TrEMBL record, chains A, B, C, D, E, F:
Keyword tags: Kinase, Transferase
Domain Carbohydrate kinase PfkB: residue ranges: 2-312
Family matches, as Pfam families: PfkB
Keyword Transmembrane: no
GO molecular-function terms, A-Z: kinase activity
Keyword Iron among UniProt keywords: no
Alphabetized InterPro entries for the sequence: Carb_kinase_PfkB-like (IPR052700), PfkB_dom (IPR011611), Ribokinase-like (IPR029056)
Protein name: Sugar kinase
Family recorded in the similarity comment: Belongs to the carbohydrate kinase PfkB family.
């Protein structure tokens, strides 16, 4: 399997331990994350060859971010340095009926000022076989949108697969672009759609419901509009509260509709990055297995991510497959 | 809304992290608390103007307690210094079938030696509109009882509302007073009763059961005995075990009986101070809303408190109202 | 009640906090444990007079292990020092569907090189009334097997009770002995069998099922084969996942079959050593109560252990009996 | 003594413990600081009535900053909220020959976008008797410069004393202003100059040397140029390395030259904010004592600050005066 | 060597890490200590058989204190339980010119309410060969004084050696006794005096100076007054500041005056309990060596204690002797 | 500059924080180290292309070790996995006159069982320009010695430079080899000798003294005996105690004797790995600078290492050169 390429902002995540608020303790922990990076690291943990492309600050914080990424064995050779600071997000982890809260400091970050000239896409995609993008990057700045578009264009020219997770986040998109138009343009370079009815409605301007029939109809209309898209995968979360979720997935690949059973996450450790874990499982799975097995793999990966602190899924292929083999009772592994 | 006044002991709470016992780790955390202070801080977090009256030690521990209280924006100008040490309580947090355990070191604390001469109630209640007391303070010492009585008397003379949470704690009351007589005397200065059938039976010497009918009858008899009391609010906890509770509330305001639905706290973080969070929600709510909405607000506040470490409820009005608006699935707030 | 004697390896357990992996934090915690030691410490916490026999390293780690054991009031006078390092095990604590993982560094530890000449059993068992052994010790090395056998032989000659927890762990037994033969030999010195159908099938070579009838049949055949064995106690765990277990127990004492109800452990804190907590509860209980009450005591002790971090049960007799008295709702103890 | 007013950015300071680098630990601590805030908090700890004027973010980080400032008993009523994030600085604490390193994320912070219209100076200075400014604020943005100038102008019109610490930091001043011109303009509103030959040379364009004679000459020329300035105070640091400093001070008040002896800081705990501690000591001292005693008080305050972690001096007046009384041998205080 | 017996209060010591103040962090550490206990633990670490006699609280804090003491292998069989809380002291560790500060919560502690009837001295001293007391115990309460006196009397009747460290602490002695009279009475039961000119002046009412000649004269007069006293040992501390001390010792044994050289403690870790480490070194040393070697051993032990956190000296005999053999350059020991 | 290759054991280092002993806290920190790895990581931090060759355990501890090494950007492609556990060392950090203490658990580690067949040296040295070895590796096992020898032989055949740090550690060498003979054999493959008179005396069997003249004579005799050795570099440590060292260096390159001035390390943070930092500085320096400048660079690197926790030097080339440019007063770097 060739190199998987991810492109997006690297953020420093800072949060108090457990369920504390910042007002309760001046001792906090940090990890690094970012939706596309999370996908990349997870695939790297599955044994994939992954390159992440980004911009980090030219200081000890940027150096620490690079070290963090390198420890997972990722290729950081296309990460650029900048005089601007690394983006930061602060997180207070909720519990039960209390939601987690996030505050961002990213609007003038090292990444936000990226422009196409900063990335040598030819070189960056040299070994590339698959590229993954999300709706976060084009929402950050005109330069981020332009740079991503240039990368996707080349990726497609090189015949690479392109997976899209076109999440729409209304708190971003401050720089003037119309989200729907921008996402539409980028989806024309994509082959795998990771998202559900909400995301489809967003880009098509439709109003499909959440049932399986509507999902299939929505997927079909999406594929009609974007002929490069071959498959649609939707992860479905049912939340009792902050601490108790269920995860399942469904798919339409132009031929078959399939869905998985719920995995019951009775004690959520950390939900951040669980969607990214699903995308990573899917990208890895589609290169190894058939569509349904890939979706099952992705669901189990997503479920496992809920048990790791931090943004990234630390599970190995062996561990994900053990879940699929039914080992979900938590029996000690020696 | 005028100033809310709380009066009671400030305790330093010391506990190991998570579910550890002291024998397992010599690293511990401290917060400050005390039932009336907890009420005050919570109301302050709701935006109320709150003054807490107490006695703290004249050393760096007392200074730290004052700083703790001030950070919430409270008025500490009527807190008195003493040569005696601040009261301390040690806590080991249980889990599932293991109960939490508390050991107190408060019997000769700075607060326990309070006498009426130490508090200038005229000055202390100058801006006061509401005063709150609990059954803990009169249980600590004769001086505490006397000082509280003097304050309540003046509060009523000034036409302030007075809420009473006359919890009876059999492990206190060591100084000779008869609990029933003492609480009875103080209830004659009160307008809102926060408590259930147990507390009513305690002061009336009755034996009402826990059903709603008995609750109404008990409330009526209470109001007959204490004509100043206008409303009775009862918070009901159903515990599966240390880690899983349900919270609801009911009320009798002389006209209507109402009750709320259960809020399911599937993963309790910290139950200390949840009753105080209910009282605080009620005091704030009764100044803003009708009785039923106030009780709903108080229940949601109480439920939220279970998700914060420490004695005090850190929720804002916006956060409590978000629960009442149905946002209980823990969806991330950005 | 005379002295209870336990014999086995002392391991240093090292793990990151909460559910972290070692890759996520370079701050870790250590406890000491080891299946027989865990049993001994728990009995000591019940007020028993317990001696643990072992070999620890002659360095500051061994000194720390000794201090750890001594703090529980145990007799360490028969623990021997060695130039070899103390065994270590690394633990990553799972959650929900993620299992906990353990990696051992014990194969050339201080204990593994024990030989009979190192232990003066006459002196070690001088005050002994009961000896407990498990299937771990004979699995470690020929010397460990030989030393244990010598101890058991003397124990029986002195008329001591001998409890056996003959767990079979396939990842051990590297030194050449046949597990079945070895365990069989040792069981001939035993009077109480702590184990279920799996363990019985292992030593008898039978294939009994898990139902109660099969359990009784298996127990009978076991007692036929090993006439010294008077009673069989079986702890049954039902796991929803890593974080949610149920515990019950059943017994056959040659006359009666009895079983307890499930205790629901909805939020597991630490499952390591819960089997040892059961054995400890049983040994203590059988010296104080009738067989059924002893089993109930053991089950409650086992359930409580799930709420303590580390390998050992910190519950007191009073705390276990409080569970048996129905106090399982986690009401605060002041 | 009336209210002291400080105006400047509030920064969140984040650093690993001890001498670790971020790459070594993902557990870090935070405090809040900012040169003018540090001065204000220190004076508040001396018992002064202090108001800090600033802009903080309207999120849980800004709330935490406000709570931090409030705990010291400061007046935060003129602090404004903003949708932009709070400024952050990352710190790696050096040792011996390794310097501490700082990386800022402040260029688009909540404070940097201040404009005069955001501060109601009339109201803010209502009780003001003294205002303090530093060279950091005018270096941040045009709006910060303009707002400060407006405040200083009003302060002088009201007859307030104005102390200036016109440090020149070449890494700031990115917005186009000429530092010398800007500082010159602001110094015309000042009555006390806190700085040495370097700072005087910077604003006068002179090249005075470091000797006492040059210091006197420079001070005289400064006073000639800025007739409102009545006194010049210079703190002198001699550094053996990061961990070992000596502190002394000298002054010219138009009449007398005086200097203090060195205080030997053999084991520096934290040097950040020590200059601010000097300024705070001076402002407090000049209101209580004669010029020389004020300078001695400021020097001892500065020396004490080296023993506290974080940006702010936590010493009380009693503690500073104890140093001046010769208690520098660290004898335990019970 | 027979059993050494110490008698005195066990205190829980609580302090923030490093040089933090309580206002700076809600994470604190605890140890247990108490001047006589510190002596006992240190002797136990030297291999001595030591019994500590005290009163601790009958709760999980008292249990933790007992476990702490037991871990050092000490005999706790004469420690009594009480319904009152354990004494606590809070410590803020200073640095350089900042002194450490202590605040006590001990005046109504478990130990303070001791009376002679609580201790069975016959049984407690059964194996005793040496008893050690300090000026703290008689300063706490009449009951503590009486109980100590009873113990000392019996100790002398049994021919035990008695070492006295009659430190006078003016912040204690609140219960009415005259310190001088009380200490005088107790010194009549003592054979070894650990203290210097200050302590001698205190009990004799003399005004000797600090020089060696005065020390000898003072010692002679002390021995004249208290004929049971055979030897006087004085530890001398020279403090540059909180972080840099020098330690030496001198002695008069009725025949010889001797003094040791200074040991230079350039980086003090924790000075609490260093005097107790000296006393422990002396008691151990006098049983093994001649007077001068014992004093040297005690000085090195005292110096080493400055490098351990907490109240107690953790050094072994081997480690102390290594210092005396000249290994003071800190060469790594593998 | 080509690839630098290091070969040696990777150890997990575990130690309590600050100066605590294991008995004082069950919270500990870990890093990874090993003398040759330390050299490699430091060179990597200088920007060099470094490959480390080793054997690590095939479990989550080995995975964590790999991640640790990868974060520094090193080539781990020749690191082999093993079923045996990773070596561990426990460290208690001393202070002042208390030495640090180390206890190893490495004698049956993953690395100790290496044999030549496990390393493909052809492939491993493909890009190699320089190889570094120390006296630790050949001391561990026959296989380690044999494997190292095979690597050195090939390195020399390929014309690579070979630096030797032939430290003799008497606590190792348990497997039967004669240390002198083994080191002699390996030195015949070496071109740079990093060591002083002690190390030369060890391999030559001579008794040279420590003066510069003897150093030159010893170096000459060494070069006569080992004609491939071109240069000798000696780092000299002067220790006042554990916490205060001075570092200087001297060299003989066959032509010139040179020595540097002392660098004064008044507050040692961590001395482990400082010799490795010197070697790394030398290897890097000799590829960039003349011999004297290289030695100065190495000395400054070594001095800087004393300020970082853990085994490895985290300094960059810029930071080392800043020391050489005279910036040793610890002035803040922004």
């Amino acid at each position: 399997m060739g190199q998987i390429v991810t492109f997006g902002e690297v953020l420093m995540r800072i949060s108090p331990r457990g369920n504390k608020k910042f007002i309760q303790s001046n001792i906090v922990e940090f990890y690094f994350g970012g939706t596309e990076l999370n996908v990349g690291i997870s695939i790297s943990n599955f044994g994939g060859d992954v390159k992440h492309i980004s911009v980090v600050s030219e200081d000890f914080i940027g150096e620490t971010a690079l070290a963090y990424i390198r420890q997972f064995g990722m290729d950081t050779s296309s990460i650029v340095l900048s005089k601007r600071p690394l983006g930061v997000y602060f997180l207070e982890v909720g519990a039960v009926i209390r939601p987690s809260m996030i505050s961002y400091n990213r609007s003038h970050s090292a990444f936000s000022e990226i422009v196409p000239a900063k990335v040598n896409w030819e070189k960056a995609l040299k070994k590339g076989e698959w590229m993954h993008w999300t709706g976060i990057t084009p929402a950050l700045s005109q330069g981020a949108f332009d740079t991503l578009k240039e990368g996707l264009k080349l990726a497609r020219e090189k015949g690479m697969a392109v997976s899209a997770d076109p999440t729409y986040r209304s708190d971003l998109w401050k720089y003037g672009q119309d989200p729907k138009a921008a996402l539409t343009e980028l989806l024309h370079y994509s082959t795998i759609f990771i998202g559900g009815v909400n995301e489809i409605n967003e880009v098509l301007g439709t109003e499909f419901g959440y049932g399986n029939d509507d999902f299939i109809k929505a997927s079909k209309q999406l594929m009609d509009t974007f002929p490069t898209i071959e498959k649609v995968f939707d992860k479905i979360r049912t939340s009792l509260n902050s601490s108790w979720h269920k995860i399942r997935a469904r798919m339409w690949n132009g031929v078959d509709f399939r869905e998985t059973k719920d995995l019951d996450i009775t004690h959520v450790v950390d939900r951040i990055g669980t969607g990214d874990a699903f995308a990573a499982g899917l990208i890895y799975g589609l290169q190894q297995y058939d569509d349904y097995k890939a979706m099952e793999f992705a669901s189990a990966a997503c479920a496992l991510k809920h048990t790791y602190e931090g943004d990234v899924n630390l599970a190995t292929v062996k561990e994900v497959n053990s879940i699929l083999a039914g080992n979900i009772t938590g029996r000690l592994v020696r």
